[in-house]
Amino acid sequence: MENYNHRQIEDNWKEKWFSDNLYEAVDFSEKPKKYILAELPYPSGKFLHVGHMMRYTVPEIYSRFLRMRGYNVLFPMGWDCFGLPAETFAQKEGITPQEAISKATKDYKDAMMSMGYAIDWNREINTSEPAYYKWTQKMFLVLWKRGLAKQQEMPVWWCEELGVLADEEVLPSKDGKGKISERGGYPVKRKMYRQWVLDIPAYADRLIDDLGKVDYEESVKIAQKNWIGKKDGALVTFNVEGESVEVFTTRPDTLFGVTFLAISPQHPVIEKLKEKISNINDVSEYIEKSKNLTDLEKQTKIKTGVQLIGVYARHPLNSQMTKIPVLVADYILTDYGTGAIMGVPAHDERDYEFAVKYNLEVKKVIEFPQDKNDTPYFTGEGVVINSEEYSGQNSQVCRQDIVKKIESLGLGKGATTYKLRPQIFSRQRYWGEPIPLIYKHDGNIEAVTEENLPVELPVMKDFLVGKDGKSPLEKNMEWNTTIDSEGNPAKRETDTMPTWAGSNWYYMRYIDPHNTVTPADVAKLKYWLPVDLYFGDAGHTTAHLLYSRFWFKVLYDEGIVPIDEPYMYRMSGGMLLGEDGGKMSKSRGNVVNPKDELEKHGADALRTYLAFIGPYEDTYPWNPKGLHACAKLVRTIYNLKTLVSEKADESAETTRILNKTIKNMTEMMDNLKMNTAVSEIMIFTNHIKNLAGIKKETWETFLVLIAPFMPFTAEELWQESNNYSKWQKTNSIHLQMWPKYNEELVIEKITELPVQINGKLRSEVTISDKDNEDTLKQKLLQDERVIKHLGGKEIKKIIYVKDKIVNLIA
RNA sequence: GGGCGAGUGGCGGAAUUGGCAUACGCGUAUGGCUUAGAACCAUAUGCCGCAAGGCUUGGAGGUUCGAGUCCUCUCUCGCCCACCA
């Protein structure tokens, strides 16, 4: 037996494949195209994580499979470089982010090459290179010119160390009492801050409607819709001492049940009416206190509020002109709806809870159903009562009538609201794309002209945020001082973009990575887009997927891209846990170092294991024994070559199993079930390893089948079997066609028919082609076990499913 | 609280349209090879039972000749969102 030396084999073929760009994706090829995309990693200075490998291996195997099935496959890779991970790493190492990134991307690329990933490296991209972010900046200007990027005072998560953070970057602290940053674990609190935001809600309806054009998993579509959170209702204006307070409600039919108004602590009407509020000191104190509460504290605490003494709201329709108390309450969110609600305690759980606490009236305006008579509030539909001329109507009809009425009075209108908020787009940090805007001396804002793009990020040794939380670029006067289009002194915007700016459109750049005139040539985009299958993190199915769809639609409206949906199908991957079943982390000591595993067992074993471990979408623990078994499989296959001989006599059984293996693997891989495809490889291996000899033809077919999983070993054995003495790209196994199978040869003639009696498996009888139902019945009646289990009873009915099963009903 | 998903051996997991549940791998046991172990090879392995036989896909019902798969109820776990008016 020859010793299997994975290091030697891998180094040899790796060098040949990548120097010849074996996995080239060809623009405008005659072959049908497939664009298989896996979310790009953000290199953070360490070796590629084993979790990354799990995320990429199945998509990569799939891309190889498609290539062998005759597709022109684009399976690209790049680096999402901007953002905190690189900055934190650079700080720790005492180097610049630029230096950190250049080392990390090299390490990551090496790791991917070591894994044999079939990537067209001519299309590699890096979001932090000026040639790339020139286009990110250009796209931002498109958004800005269309009024979709604007400045707003926003309540933001504020971190002394990191500046402003997005919701997604903030986590509850370990003790549950506060908030910390996702990276670094620094304390975080709320603060108002002027920010650039993207008006994603402007596209909300299209983002919902166009889900009809794509083929995502229904659960992904639902998640997106929930995230957008579209709700129909009405805006109703209440007069509060001469000031208008607008509320949003989904239940205008309960308008006559309003017994109080509740407004958020940030509501502007408080400031306007402060002269009239007799307890203004108490109110201010409450507002001040609520500012420092974390969400969790607000949640566990009973709802609180303070009534604005001395001011009342007037009901817009009620003829009695009842005075309605107004309260400030921190359960009212500033940035949802209008920041004010009409309190209807009889028909809303939260309003009820609040009303009880503050002794507010509870007025029923919809009849409670019989079985709900004991409950204090009822949120369903029903007959409207106590509502003047609307009484007696069904609540759903009443809803429309009331909206019509307030519309005619100019006191409101039907309206739609979304949970989706404008997304904060600026960061007060160094390591990001500079926002390409200039503040003129008169305060107006002007875009940097296209010939002056990219606005390059200056290299700065001191790139950390100061204690004031302002962008480090603020300190760099040389950089941020400029002149405007009229030649007057001006100042650059010093905020930078968030990480997701570059990763919003990266998949477009793979299509035309070296273009200097446009982000990507429209004809090429037309050829490659949409992405056929997008693999990524389950946590990105809402935010990332939604924001990048938004970005793409804006580009479509601008005529930069030819279609309006970027991804046809989305597949989300599970997680790889540590051996102990917990999340891999340094503190648990269960982190797997892929470099060690690669050294020990080789890439083919690691790839096969990552495919075999389970379905792509699930989460499971790392099991070193499983990897070991796959390493054994690779070795066993390698040594099978000694069985190959021209005159090996193969049985019909071997032909059948080979055909069945091809059929099963083809179907499984089509459905991305790589784990069971590996089982098929094992089954076939177990069969042939006990044969006296294998025909060359069978052997080579088998090698093609294993090639997507074990590309190195397959190539080595293929070249050897074909006696190719010199490397030639076209002779690579990876450019061969996937084998076809003969359906007839797959069919296994069953000779033992399972026999059920009254639905329970009792026996088996031997059958042949000649048997029909009558001869079968004869056989059954002679079978000892059948006789025994019938116990002398008469057979009432025979259900015979040919070649499957027979069931006797006694 | 809301949404989504999942419950199958000791473990990871297989099971076209309902048709032999537990493929494949791990683990375990026994044997071989070894001074011994590791590694490797062979065989066995859902559970109870000496056996005949019985039981088994979270639980309870139902449809069906036949249910892991379809229907109703219920329990448990995971993920995401969460005072969203």
TrEMBL record:
One cellular component term (GO) for this entry is:
cytosol
All copies of domain Leucyl-tRNA synthetase editing, residue ranges: 225-406
One Pfam entry name: tRNA-synt_1_2
The organism's superkingdom is given as Bacteria
Q: Which SUPFAM superfamilies match?
A: Anticodon-binding domain of a subclass of class I aminoacyl-tRNA synthetases (SSF47323), Nucleotidylyl transferase (SSF52374), ValRS/IleRS/LeuRS editing domain (SSF50677)
Residue ranges annotated for the Methionyl/Leucyl tRNA synthetase domain, each copy included: 35-163
Its top-level enzyme class, in one word, is: ligase
Localization (cell): Cytoplasm
Instruction: Give its E.C. classification number.
Output: 6.1.1.4
Q: Which InterPro entries match?
A: aa-tRNA-synth_I_CS, aa-tRNA-synth_Ia, Leu-tRNA-ligase, Leu_tRNA-synth_edit, M/V/L/I-tRNA-synth_anticd-bd, Methionyl/Leucyl_tRNA_Synth, Rossmann-like_a/b/a_fold, tRNAsynth_Ia_anticodon-bd
Cell cycle keyword on record: no
| Every Aminoacyl-tRNA synthetase class Ia domain range | 425-611
In the record, the note on similarity to other proteins reads: Belongs to the class-I aminoacyl-tRNA synthetase family.
Q: What is this protein called?
A: Leucine--tRNA ligase
Q: Where does ATP bind?
A: K586
The Swiss-Prot or TrEMBL record annotates one GO molecular function as:
ATP binding
Catalysed reaction, written as an equation? tRNA(Leu) + L-leucine + ATP = L-leucyl-tRNA(Leu) + AMP + diphosphate
**Major location category of this protein:** cytoplasm
Start and end of every Methionyl/Valyl/Leucyl/Isoleucyl-tRNA synthetase anticodon-binding domain? 657-773
Q: Name one GO biological process term.
A: leucyl-tRNA aminoacylation
Keywords assigned by UniProt, alphabetized: Aminoacyl-tRNA synthetase, ATP-binding, Cytoplasm, Ligase, Nucleotide-binding, Protein biosynthesis
HAMAP family linked: Leu_tRNA_synth_B
Q: Where is this motif: 'KMSKS' region?
A: 583-587
